Amino acid sequence: MLAEATSPYLRQHADNPVHWKQWTADALAEAADRDVPILLSVGYAACHWCHVMAHESFEDAEVAAAANRDFVCIKVDREERPDLDAVYMNATVALTGQGGWPMTCFLTPDGRPFFCGTYYPKPSFLQLLSAVAETWRSRRAEVEQTSDHIAGELRSMASGLPGGGPALAPAVCDGAVEAVLRDEDTVNGGFGGAPKFPPSALLEALLRNYERTGSQMPVATVARACEAMARGGIYDQLSGGFARYSVDSSWVVPHFEKMLYDNAQLLRVYSHLARRTGDPLARRVADETARFLLDDLRRDAMFVSSLDADTAGVEGLTYVWTPAQLAEVLGEDDGHWAATVLGVTPEGTFERGASVLQLRSAPDDADRYERVRAGLRAARRGRPQPPRDDKVVTAWNGMAITALAEAAFTLGRPEYFSAASECARALLDLHLVDGRLRRSSLGGVVGSSMAILEDHAALATALLTLHQATGSAEWLDAALRLLDVALDHFADPDEAGRWYDVADDAEQLVLRPSDPTDGATPSGASLIAEALQLAAHLAPEGPAARYGTAADATLSSATVLLTRAPRSAGHWLAVAEAAARGPIQIAVACERPDSELLAAARALAPGGAIVVGGATDSSELLRDRPRVRDSDAAYVCRGRVCDLPVTTVEELAAALGPSV
């Protein structure tokens, strides 16, 4: 029953006349017993077109009668079961040339796909249901042959990263950066045209290239993209936080859903940009994005998945404004001024004469602007609000923990670090069951789906980030246990550096997913490379060697992707840039946790750096590293090459300049 599901998306469909079932062995067995195909529908709670298809078809009695009669109908939340989503999205793209959600697939009872598509309006969907059912009844041999062929092709495609690439070296990173920079939209910022997605991982990688090379081009590209997004409609000018993407190339009109994973990644980018450049806009956006996470996406110490694109069935209803509405809330003078500052026009930039708020330049009166923002925020709270997907996903919470911890030191906000620590503790308490990690939970009830590679990797990185900040062995031990599980159950035993996205003891599907490319979120393989790289420097000597060997093999396997498709390897490039310079390690020998030098190290450290502090020999990086002449001392190393210790903030800042 969907009503008991641990997914709000599935619960949305509990009352449909279509007799939806969850993906279980019993549901597949029912299809075999009835000798009917499976209708598989995959989506997620914040998906606008998923809602449209639900209203048009899944809530319709005529459609339901046909679907229930001729199929076993299974509904899947792609965020809860990314393994199923990956398998059948590969099939959809292979058969149609494109993918997306809602995804609509027809399967044999044992799960082999034979027809796939995405959104269908009711008339087309009814025709499709009839045609598929008739084909199943009258041309079964063709269906079996087709499904066998598709399953075989999917298995051959799921071979992971191709071998034969060059060894990982700074030149590989530089070549990837040059290719990425050639694709920049220098007019609007970012990369590519409409629809335009925040290139979070690529921006982080470019910042790390700047730290290694000192080249101004990468950091200028990052600054252009970050400013364009922050001033555009994709950014919530009233309450902070970014929408999923822009439907145009100028960042004006967003697809209004707000995802935890986007905002966690962008918080990290803006925080690191603020560290390096001191840009006040980057600093403000980092602070507001962190507040958005805490105010709008936090529940029971953990972070929920998303805010919907629709409000009361209308996309963007909560967020858009007309000049008359501004005047009604603010009065004529402030309303007219706000319309000018925030780009609200009589014609509108969205639909029905309404506009998405933008801030194309700094306002001429900062105090007035803050007063206007406060008034509009208060008025907006009185509007209908978008639904929230309260599902807690392990990987995305791991990303949020890391970003909040790093932002806390950039911004001097200890409450952000406290929130990160509380989230990590809650995740470990709820999502670790009998020593194994689960993918998600809802309302304090953990789901049955086992965690995938990205969950282990993102949470391990988060725990290692907390360990660096606190020195606590609790966080280190928990992270290393996750990495050991990953090495034992997700690493390919026959090919060093290759990873599967699902464990070797997980449910066996048509194929075992292994996708190394970075998308809206980094791939599990690139995330595990980051976690292993950190562990190689933070773990005790024996385990550290194992993690270091695995990190090197994993990064070496990515060089083909970095050379052939760097836009699809953003997080790989970020991790590779850190590897190409060591990564930077900063060990501060100090007597007190509030050491000024340690605080400076954490606030100045570039992305990918490792920072620890404490007494001599209190951690691996502080072994045999004492204070100097009764002063706290910072030891800065790049790889195995170390500078002389420094004892002042000014000396440390100079030591952390780009390594040219």
Describe this structure as you would to a colleague.
This protein is an alpha+beta fold and 660 residues long. It has four domains: 2-158, Glutaredoxin (3-Layer(aba) Sandwich); 170-311 and 389-581, Glycosyltransferase, CATH 1.50.10; 319-383, no CATH class; 584-656. 50% of the residues lie in helices and 11% in strands. The chain has 25 helices and 22 strands. A four-stranded mixed sheet has the order 2-1-3-4, sandwiched between helices. Strands 20-19-21-22 form a four-stranded mixed sheet. Strand 3 and strand 4 (113-117) form a beta hairpin. Helix 18 (453-470) runs parallel beside helix 20. It is globular. It holds the Pfam family Thioredox_DsbH. Residues 2-154 form the Spermatogenesis-associated protein 20-like TRX domain. This is Spermatogenesis-associated protein 20-like TRX domain-containing protein.
Task: Please supply descriptive tags for the structure shown above.
four-stranded mixed sheet; alpha+beta; Spermatogenesis-associated protein 20-like TRX domain-containing protein; 25 helices; globular; 660 residues; Glutaredoxin
Task: Produce the secondary structure layout.
Layout: H1 8-12, H2 25-34, E1 38-43, H3 48-58, H4 61-70, E2 72-77, H5 82-96, E3 103-107, E4 113-117, H6 122-138, H7 140-157, H8 170-182, H9 200-213, H10 216-231, E5 245-246, E6 254-255, E7 258-259, H11 260-277, H12 280-296, E8 298-299, E9 302-303, E10 306-307, E11 310-311, E12 314-315, H13 323-330, H14 332-341, H15 366-381, E13 388-389, E14 391-393, H16 394-411, H17 414-431, E15 432-433, E16 436-437, E17 440-442, E18 445-446, H18 453-470, H19 473-489, H20 524-538, H21 541-556, H22 559-564, H23 570-580, E19 584-589, H24 596-604, E20 610-614, E21 633-638, E22 641-642, H25 649-655
Parallel strand pairs: 1-2, 19-20
Antiparallel strand pairs: 1-3, 3-4, 5-6, 7-10, 8-9, 10-13, 11-12, 14-17, 15-16, 17-18, 19-21, 21-22
Organism: Mycolicibacterium iranicum
InterPro entries: 6-hairpin_glycosidase_sf (IPR008928), 6hp_glycosidase-like_sf (IPR012341), Ssp411 (IPR024705), Ssp411-like_TRX (IPR004879), Thioredoxin-like_sf (IPR036249)
GO biological process, one term: carbohydrate metabolic process
